[in-house]
Amino acid sequence: MPDQYVSIQRQCGLAGVARATVYAQRQERPLSADDKVLMDLLDAQYTATPFYGSRRMTAQLRKWGFMVNRKRVQRLKFHRFSVRNIKGWLTKPPLYIAFM
């Protein structure tokens, strides 16, 4: 039996997964009532202005009197819309497109 033992480090290396992923099993915490309110406001604002990024959404929420930071808006936006902010996704055209 000892010959068949494979360490976690080796298993993670073979699978291409970081060891931290194995050791830290993150539990998704339920949303608070404040987060639900903010998500509803983000949803309404996103429907009106889908081109707003996290900075403008944060500024809009602050204008409405909510004390939020950009990281919280990004987390809630990702949770609601299941999209990650890809740098330059809508602003830069792909390199392989030939313009006429």
Quick synopsis:
The chain is 51% helix and 0% strand. The protein is an all-alpha fold and 100 residues long.
What is the molecular shape?
elongated
Which stretches are low in confidence, meaning pLDDT under 50 for 5 or more residues running? none
Give the helix tally. Answer: 5
Report the β-strand fraction as a percent range: under 5%
The description of the largest β-sheet is: none
Number of strands: 0
Radius of gyration: 21 Å
Order of helices and strands: HHHHH
Q: Could you say which structural class the secondary elements and strand pairing correspond to?
A: mainly alpha
Fraction in helix: 40-55%
Distance between the termini: 67 Å
Can you put this structure into words, describing what you see?
By secondary structure, this protein is mainly α. 51% of the residues lie in helices and 0% in strands. It has helices spanning 8-15, 19-23, 33-48, 54-63, 70-81. The longest helix is centred in the middle third of the chain and has 16 residues, at 33-48. The mean pLDDT is 79.
Describe this protein with a few key phrases.
100 residues; mainly alpha; 5 helices; 51% helix; elongated
Task: Give the secondary structure arrangement, pairings included.
Layout: H1 8-15, H2 19-23, H3 33-48, H4 54-63, H5 70-81
Helix pairs in contact: 3-5, 4-5
